[in-house]
Amino acid sequence: MSLFAFIVLSATVVLLFGRELALRSYQSKKRKSGLLTSFSRLGSSHNLSFTSQELLADRILGFDGLSKKLLVLEQRHGHYEWFTIDLNEVESCRVTRMYCWGEGSEKTQKRLDGRVNRVVLVFTFKNSVQPVEIPFFSSTINERNELKILDAKARGWESFLSKLLTRSKPGRA
Q: Are 74 and 82 contacting, i.e. CB atoms less than 8 angstroms apart?
């Protein structure tokens, strides 16, 4: 291969790669803009005023301090799904790391090469309703280098929301 052909081929690869990055960036910005707009409208329609918000890859959550409600809006398969969590109904809020394992025993794999597959904020409820998970990190969506940042964000929300939970008082004997 001549030097000229190598240069032309290299330039073409760089241009195609740059075009792909620009397209992904545009699509990401457009998706986040739509998510934010829908979130704002949804919050307004439910009389929520957010004191804290978090924008993640495919979801946004916002907390209304006066009503003690958390609104979560997710984008799935081209449409939006949402739900609210009333902190007055929550027993506990904790961060859980879920690992993916190769073949072999879980204990060995965890010690040797267990990798975090997901980091989720788990809400358990006083009335025994099924727990609700809000993913902050997923290895299928996020890059591995985002794990520490998203784990720290999840732990920040855990700390913040846990302080606001009303604890059930034990009955008198």
A: yes
Nearest to 167 by CA among 68, 63, 79, 88: 88
Is the pLDDT at 47 greater than 90, yes or no? yes
Number of separate helices (H) and strands (E) present in the chain: 3, 7
CB-based burial of residue 62 (10 Å sphere; 0-12 exposed, 13-18 middle, 19+ buried)?
A: buried
* HSE-CB for 121 with a 13 A CA cutoff: 23
Digit-coded pLDDT (tens) for 86-141: 999 999 999 999 887 655 433 334 444 558 889 999 999 998 789 999 999 998 88
Write down the domain spans for the chain. Answer: 3-162
**Sign of CA pseudo-dihedral 112, 117, 119, 124:** negative
54 DSSP 8-state letter: E
Report residue 116 CA to chain centroid gap.
Answer: 14
Encode burial over 68-103: b for 16+ CB neighbours within 10 A, e otherwise. bbbbbbbbeeeeeeeeebebeebbebebeeeeeeee
